[in-house]
Design a protein that fits this description.
The protein folds into 2 domains: 96 residues, 2-Layer Sandwich (Phosphorylase Kinase, domain 1); 317 residues, Alpha-Beta Complex (Aminoglycoside 3'-phosphotransferase, Chain: A, domain 2). Helix content is 32%, strand content 13%. Strands 4-5-3-2-1-17 form a 6-stranded antiparallel sheet. It is built from 11 helices and 17 strands. The protein is an alpha+beta fold. It holds the Pfam family APH.
């Protein structure tokens, strides 16, 4: 796989977009062999900011081309801005690098979304608006299109491939296979999906004294017609239960079709299985160290879910007998009847087991996202103009939403800094306003659980360090840089 420095990427960006004369560039630090893209952020002499994404593998190149075609269609059908490619440049090794304008906005932490907030309502409406789109738009763009049964079969095949590595605990395999083989859970209508919803792919309006709302969704490389539960997976796993209620209620009211009753259960499955996907990405890239780290995370998840099952079973067996009557208390009940009543009077009291307290923090702070802001990263931008989502239609009768349970904890490797962003980041550097630009992540969502009172808790155990794309980034002025590693761009196609 070819590697390029930030100055080489700036040269490619200049060749891709007519009139783009770079004045500075910020590169991102590599995050191992499983990294799909090289990303840089370029500012030109007109103070415009750009993002260049250079695929490192044929698979990444294909995803970039497909998502670019889709975004060109969605920009005319969504009321929020999306990262539309402004220029392409051919690469010597094959494929093309894409350049798009740098979207402004503020990164959010899913765990910080408050119940009843405009941000929670806006997120539910944004997802509903996306899922209401005509699937023929996706078909025209050439992205994958699945029906429910085919998608269930695909999930089973993914699990079989992961099981063949010997790295997935038997308990998890049994648990997930049981859910995947229960066909009653998989009777739903597939919809257009984003495929990568999370803290790193949601941009909010600037915090300017008004309640923030969703401004844009970033990171569209996994977009396809598939299970709408895919877009709820991170929300089920990371939002506070009350906040999730708000999102799902807004989502149900804004959907053109009633959400199916097993939507949340499938979303929890997707959230748990995300670790398997990231492990298999590491295996495919030959990253044995990364694959083994994900395997350790899977073992911890298996242990935690097994403990929860034991706690539920123990709670169900607890029996509370009624208090004995006070000595000497008068009773009109004959002794024989009282004895018979006493024999059948015990009742079971199911106590809710306390939530695990050893879960790790689910969402990295200031996580960023991209796409063609499809890979995640962190940065700061000037505040962009607020964009509104599709307005609600006429009020309709309340739609019943499946009861919300506590999020199922899933662990994934997290960076040891609160400002680390996921790999293949598209987020940019600090700017005048201090708002944050986000880009989408190729990596899995992080672990979050809740305490018994519903408040998020974090794991105090040390988490192995995983290098992120944006742990360090350097602004490189492009004046007087003779001798730097600028590679001449290949001829434009």
């Amino acid at each position: 796989m070819t590697s390029r420095g930030p100055l080489a990427l700036a040269a490619l960006a200049s060749a891709a977009v007519p009139g783009l004369d770079p004045s500075s560039v910020e590169g991102v630090v590599g995050s191992g062999p499983s990294r799909s893209f090289e990303v840089a952020f370029v500012q030109d002499h007109e103070h415009r900011r750009w993002v260049i994404r250079c695929p490192r593998t044929p698979a990444a190149s294909a995803r970039l081309e497909q998502s670019a075609a889709l975004l060109a269609l969605l920009t005319r059908r969504l009321t929020m801005p999306v990262p539309v490619v402004k220029g392409w440049v051919a690469l010597p090794e094959g494929g093309r690098a894409a350049v798009h304008a740098y979207l402004t906005g503020r990164a959010i932490d899913l765990a910080s979304i408050a119940p009843g907030s405009s941000l929670a309502v806006g997120l539910g409406r944004a997802l509903a608006h996306l899922h209401n789109l005509d699937r023929r738009i996706y078909e025209e763009a050439g992205v994958p299109v699945y029906e429910a049964e085919a998608y269930r079969t695909r999930r089973l095949a993914e699990l079989d491939r992961a099981a063949a590595t010997g790295r997935v605990p038997t308990g998890l395999l049994t648990r997930w296979e049981h859910t995947l083989e229960d066909v009653s859970l998989w009777r739903f209508t597939t919809t257009p999906t984003h495929g990568g919803i999370g803290s790193s792919t949601i941009l909010a309006t600037p915090d300017d004294g008004e309640d923030p709302d969703v401004k844009s969704l970033l990171g569209w490389e996994s977009a396809q017609v598939a299970d709408p539960a895919d877009d709820l997976a991170a929300l089920v796993g990371e939002l506070h239960p009350d906040s999730l209620d708000t999102v799902l209620e807004a989502y149900a009211h804004a959907r053109s079709d009633r959400p199916d009753q097993h939507l949340q259960e499938r979303a929890r499955l997707v959230h748990q299985m995300q670790l398997v996907r990231t492990m298999m990405s590491a295996v495919a890239a030959g990253d044995d160290e990364g694959a083994e780290e994900h395997a350790r995370q899977l073992r911890r998840l298996d242990d935690r879910l097994a403990r929860e099952d034991e706690e539920h079973a123990a709670a169900a067996k607890r029996v509370v007998r009624p208090a004995a009557p006070a000595a000497g208390a008068a009773s009109d009940t004959p002794p024989e009847a009282a004895a018979d009543a006493d024999k059948g009077s015990s009742v079971e009291a199911v106590e809710a087991p306390s939530r695990d307290a050893d879960a790790t923090d689910s969402s990295p702070r200031d996580a960023a996202s991209g796409a063609d802001q499809t890979a995640g990263g962190e940065g700061h931008t000037v505040a962009g103009q607020d964009q509104t989502l599709a307005a609600d239609g006429d009020e309709e009768a309340a739609v019943e939403v499946e009861a919300t349970g506590a999020p199922t904890p899933v662990e994934v490797p997290a960076s040891n800094t609160s400002h680390a962003a996921p790999k293949d980041s598209d987020a940019g550097p600090a700017s005048a306003s201090g708002d944050t630009m986000t880009r989408a992540s190729d990596s899995a969502t992080t672990d979050l659980t809740s305490s018994s009172d519903g408040s998020p808790t974090t794991d105090t155990a040390p988490v192995p360090h995983l290098v992120r794309d944006h742990e360090t980034a350097e602004i490189v002025p492009l004046t007087g840089d003779e001798g730097d590693d600028v590679l001449p761009p290949s001829p434009r196609r």
